[in-house]
Amino acid sequence: MLKSAGVGVGDEVVVPAFGNAEVAEGVLALGAVPVFADIDGATYCLDAAAVEAAVTSRTVAVVAVPRFGYLAGVRAVRQLGQRRGLLVVEHRDAEDLDPSALAQRQVQAAYLDRRLTGVRTPEPCPGHTYQRYVVRVPGNGRPDRDAFARAVRRRGVECEVPVQTPVHRLPAFRQEVSLPETVRAADETLTLPVGGSLSRRDLQRVVAACNALGGLLQPAF
């Protein structure tokens, strides 16, 4: 879509740094310049105010990526694009779920929302499809999230760190730009299992493993 819109050498395209590098790589492949903007800490999508602050006279487009099923997170970016005359390309990081799978995930996510106390559960958001169930493990100046993940796995619960390093900190894309929400999300986020063939007992195991580790969440003083 960027190529067909005429995006090319010297143009700037605003992209997120929270996620994989393929979006920024696609911009570079056109000879354009990826410009990183911060995300909204609740939805993990580009923050419209941060995008607007990154816009210059050379900006021609924005690539909005709805992460983890927060589909409503790109709405404000679309509105900004219309107001500023920018092309907004929506890049999905996962396939749409069929209605039965979506309903199953939402039921399972609601169960986890009600019972998890050892982590911060996802922010409520209209239209959230829970492509991935992402929680926060706040740090105290230590990699608490990584320790938490290892401990959860030892209790037989699969979990993943969705973003190890923000794209703006990778050698090929390194930029001196302040993206506090992006960095915080990369440090704190962890995905827990939902969907598929998970049973109620499986979900209870997830809850028990996480809640038993709540001591890792002691606030720093």
| SS field, number of helical segments | 7
Which structural category fits the helices and strands? alpha/beta
Q: How much helical structure, as a percent, in the residues?
A: 25-40%
Strand content: 5-15%
As laid out across the biggest beta sheet, the strand order is 2-1-3-4
CATH architecture title of the largest domain: Alpha-Beta Complex
User: What's the CATH topology name of the largest domain?
Assistant: Aspartate Aminotransferase, domain 1
pLDDT < 50 runs, ≥5 residues: 215-221
Q: Rg to the nearest angstrom?
A: 18 Å
Question: What would you note in describing this structure?
Answer:
By secondary structure, the chain is an alpha/beta fold. Helix content is 33%, strand content 13%. It has two domains: 79 residues, no CATH class; 119 residues, Aspartate Aminotransferase, domain 1, CATH 3.90.1150.10. Strands 2-1-3-4 form a four-stranded parallel β-sheet, with helices on both faces. A two-stranded antiparallel ribbon has the order 5-6. β1, α1 and β2 form a beta-alpha-beta unit. It starts with 11 loop residues before the first strand and ends in a 10-residue tail after the last helix. The C terminus is likely disordered.
